[in-house]
Specification:
With 458 residues, the protein is mainly α. 64% of the residues lie in helices and 6% in strands. The strands form two sheets. A three-stranded mixed β-sheet has the order 1-2-3. A three-stranded mixed β-sheet has the order 4-5-6.
Length: 458
């Protein structure tokens, strides 16, 4: 949105030391404004954002007030979502509107996209028409789409220009993006027809026509495309940037590699949280928020644990007669659970990177079953021999070994088939797979082990 550089881009940054948080807190407690400014003056926007994220919430307002005159707008785009909302409230809509105009469009959108509509409109109404329309263009697209991810700050030229004319136009323009990597050649209807790297233009003679320059393969991104698919396109084609087009094929924005790094970071973190059943929880959330978010998932786990206990209850008399079964049961269940989690992790990751597709489902499923079978046989031998020696009961060792093989194979199959089914149903496999896989391995493990013991040992 703005073509001037932010002041601290030219500073010599010093590494961020988390220990300065305590220094800042001491300075805030004693109202030493100049000390806070001295500590933070050489830090980058990302470092300042880290400080704000780590400060107790009661100290954030004072910290913002102390550094307000030197507040870098880029700090806002680096803050955690909940903290950002608080900081925006502290700064007020007028200041925030001024800061947004100094950010790239995609960063500005990131700052305000999660605000409620009323607050968002108040801020937007304080921004000049041209800049506001750029922001509204991105905000009109779905949250996880390329349209939200793109910047409208790009460079497009007509193919009938030569290199000299292009370079001269750059020099006199007061509306160039802060950073750009490619020039897009567009036709009369603003549809991109070629992508030329800036380095290619600089190396070429002034009289050479732009349309005659070597261009990259033009990979266009639809504004409605999901951002995970956008990241996949960048990885697949080794893109540095890519043009974003609307439903008519007209160029409306650009996505660059630094945006994709954020996508990979966010998606990886999201999948890890979902696998752990903590949703979009953040360390800055309050105790009540955190507890309520975790409760529902823990409640589901409680239900599955009760199901496993019911299965054990069917064999209560068998356990009473052979106490060793109670000692050995956790081995079968835990080994199955761990094996299932390993397969599940690889499956969810492969689905997200699109390495696992219907074309290779059968081969990968067979591979996981064979891996589980091999590991099951190896561990069956180890634990079967040890348990037979431990309790001086060859039959017990044999039952445990058979149960181990069956449960490990079941774990491998469940670890891949459950995510595939959930994915087919349109449910995020990272969200719900783990609890189902654990339940399957527990129930099958207990049922097979105790069932075989009831048939052959009692």
């Amino acid at each position: 949105m703005s073509d001037h550089k932010l002041d601290d881009k030219n500073r010599d940054f010093i590494p961020f030391d988390p220990s300065i948080i305590s220094e800042i807190m001491d300075a805030l407690d004693s109202s030493e404004k100049q000390k806070v400014i001295a500590i933070t003056k050489d830090l980058s926007a990302a470092d300042i954002a880290d400080i704000i994220n780590l400060l107790p919430r009661s100290e954030i307002k004072s910290f913002i007030e102390f550094i307000e005159n030197d507040f870098n707008p880029e700090i806002l785009s680096e803050l955690e979502e909940h903290i950002r909302e608080e900081v925006i409230n502290f700064l007020g809509p007028t200041h925030v509107a001024e800061f947004l105009q100094k950010l790239e469009t995609d960063d500005a959108v990131h700052v305000i996209e999660d605000l409620d509509e009323n607050d968002k409109n108040i801020i937007l109404n304080k921004i000049p028409d041209i800049e506001r329309k750029d922001l509204e263009l991105s905000l009109n697209y779905p949250e996880d789409s390329a349209g939200r991810l793109m910047s409208v700050d790009f460079v497009s030229l007509t193919p009938n220009m030569n290199v000299g004319e292009a370079i001269d136009s750059f020099r006199i323009s007061d509306d160039l993006p802060i950073e750009f990597y490619e020039i897009y050649l567009v036709n009369d209807t603003s549809k991109p027809i070629a992508a030329i790297s800036l380095s290619n233009i600089i190396r070429s003679s002034r009289d050479k026509s732009l349309k005659d320059l070597e261009s990259h393969e033009l990979i266009m991104i639809s504004a409605d495309m999901d951002r995970e698919l956008v990241a996949y396109q960048f990885e697949r084609f080794d893109l540095v940037s890519a043009p974003v087009v609307d439903d008519k094929g007209s160029l409306i924005g650009v996505i660059t590699a630094d945006d994709i790094v954020e996508v990979f970071k966010d998606e990886a973190g999201e999948d890890i949280k979902l696998l752990g059943g903590v949703g979009d929880e953040d360390i800055t959330d309050s105790v009540i928020e955190t507890s309520s978010n975790r409760f529902s998932w823990l409640f589901v786990n409680l239900i599955t644990a009760v199901i496993a206990s019911i299965v054990i209850g069917f064999f209560g008399r068998t356990i009473e007669e052979i106490v060793a079964l109670a000692i050995l049961m956790p081995i079968v269940a835990s080994m199955g659970g761990n094996a299932g989690t390993q397969t599940l992790t690889i499956t969810v990751r492969s689905l997200s990177t699109r390495d696992l597709i219907p074309l290779n489902y059968k081969r990968i499923i067979n591979r996981e079953i064979l891996v589980s079978l091999l590991n099951g046989l190896l561990f069956a031998i180890i634990i079967g021999v040890l348990s037979a020696m431990w309790f001086s009961n060859f039959g017990l060792g044999l039952v445990l070994a058979i149960a181990m093989v069956i449960n490990m194979v079941t774990a491998g199959f469940a670890g891949i088939i459950i995510p595939l089914i959930l994915n087919k149903l349109g449910i995020d496999p990272a969200l719900a797979s783990s609890v189902f896989v654990t339940t399957v391995t527990d129930v099958v493990g207990f049922m097979v082990f105790l069932g075989l013991a009831a048939l052959y040992l009692v």
